[in-house]
Amino acid sequence: MNDALIRSLPKCELHIHIEGSLEPELMFALARRNGIALPYESVEAVRRAYQFRNLQDFLDIYYQGMSVLITEQDFYDLAFAYLERAKADNVRHVEMFFDPQGHTARGVAFETVTDGLSRAIADAERTLGVSACLVMCFLRHLDEASAEKTLDEALAFKDRIVGIGLDSSEAGHPPSKFKRVFGRARDAGFFVTAHAGEEGPASYVWEALDELGVERIDHGNRAMEDETLVGRLVREKMALTVCPLSNLRLRVVDDLSHHPLRRMMDKGLVVTVNSDDPAYFGGYVNQNYREISEALALSREEIAAIVRNGFHASLMPDEEKKKALAEVDRVLTELP
Ligand SMILES: Nc1ncnc2[nH]cnc12
Ligand SMILES: [Zn+2]
């Protein structure tokens, strides 16, 4: 019902793992280019395998999928394809997660990854008018020493990497495990964020705030189990990067009509809508807006409020934010 509005509004994407935008067609093309055998016979067989009972089921397939990424050009092709898709959804600004340890562990140089991604970002900025920046995530199932080593490598690319995040298997890997390396990242001037409260408990959200000093929470669904925590997030205007289709496919929610997004908004939380791993979860950012809007019967004003939250919570320069927010207002008045 609000399709035209969703399409017309300029948007931000603040929670996208670039490796999670690897469509099966590109996966096969890169496997062929690099002489890598995939354990699937066709693109359709890959898509059929995308049935997940939980986050770990997905991660096992996600790490296997990224094994086709070898050369600088592979990372370029991956990121540019995503940015073209984002442009089609009227996304103006992207904060792009990447998982260097998923590549360096396979013998791909850190520089190969960042060179390819940042070249695609520069080209997209020029040719598509989409701005983007890189947020490097630590894999939380690995130890802090590995994260420290990865941060050491990132320091040489400080001009291209703006932020540090934390992702992968959440349960059993609390944010406190990475307290020291996040302290170093903050001291070095990186923006910091972390996945918390996706599958893990509300206490992980507290830890992300108090021990990592995060400036955003990725997901945050389970913060809703703790009223005191919700109050703090509201008071601090801490943005949550919510990913509805991811939550559905990873069974964080059993049905989108039970998704906490509306209750989050009613409590005054700053929520944004994002795609997480769109090639695996059945939709890019507009599809996430469409399905959650329909499931929760979101009004035009509620949709616009989420879009505005995205710009406010982003790292865009203030002048660019102002322009984008003015455009949101213009679209709202012009669309019947
Ligand atoms: N949804 C997610 N949660 C944790 N780690 C991830 N890596 C890629 N997608 C992720
Ligand atoms: Zn994520």
Automatic annotation (TrEMBL):
Residues bound to substrate: 277
Site feature Important for catalytic activity, where: 219
EC number: 3.5.4.2
SUPFAM superfamilies linked to this entry: Metallo-dependent hydrolases
Textual note on the cofactor: Binds 1 zinc ion per subunit.
Domain Adenosine deaminase: 10-330
Cofactor(s) needed by this chain: Zn(2+)
EC category: hydrolase
Active site: 198
Keyword annotations of the record: Hydrolase, Metal-binding, Nucleotide metabolism, Zinc
Signal peptide extent: none
Record-annotated membrane-spanning stretches: none
Gene Ontology molecular function, alphabetical: hydrolase activity
InterPro entries xref list: A_deaminase_dom, ADE, Ado/ade_deaminase, Metal_Hydrolase
Binding site for Zn(2+): 15, 17, 195, 276
NCBIfam families to which the protein is assigned, alphabetical: aden_deam, PRK09358.1-6
Function noted in UniProt: Catalyzes the hydrolytic deamination of adenine to hypoxanthine. Plays an important role in the purine salvage pathway and in nitrogen catabolism.
UniProt-recorded name of the protein: Adenine deaminase
Species of the source: Flaviflagellibacter deserti
